[in-house]
Design goal:
single chain, mainly alpha, 3 helices, 0% strand
Length: 114
């Protein structure tokens, strides 16, 4: 059974990590070259895309926490449902932490290359 917290974790980790590692390492030489203003536009595009994905990851994690809370509220003492809701909430929180840490690392890496 795939819980919503697990989906939040996978989505936030894969998307944010992909773009936080993709931007500085691959695009740094292009941005530093700044051929005809393309580098500045590319930097702005990657920054905007990272901000959008960070917002999306935080939003999905928030929805995961809410869904986990609703699952817990409607468990009515069923220990199995309570355990599943706890797991969903924990996965959503882990996904949120990964999104925030990867955004911080991406900002630090971007500062190192400029």
């Amino acid at each position: 059974m795939v819980t919503s917290g697990f989906l939040v974790y996978i989505l936030s980790y894969s998307v944010t990590e992909m773009f936080s590692h993709f931007g500085p390492h691959v695009l740094a030489p292009i941005v530093l070259a700044d051929i005809g203003g393309i580098g500045g536009m590319l930097t702005a595009f990657v920054t905007n895309l990272t901000d959008i994905l960070k917002g999306l990851g935080v939003g999905v994690a928030g929805i995961g926490i809410i869904v986990g809370g609703l699952m817990r509220a409607t468990a009515f003492g069923n220990e199995r449902k309570v355990a599943i809701s706890n797991q969903a909430i924990a996965c959503a929180i882990v996904g949120l932490v990964i999104v925030l840490i990867s955004a911080t690392v991406a900002t630090g890496m971007q500062a190192m290359f400029h």
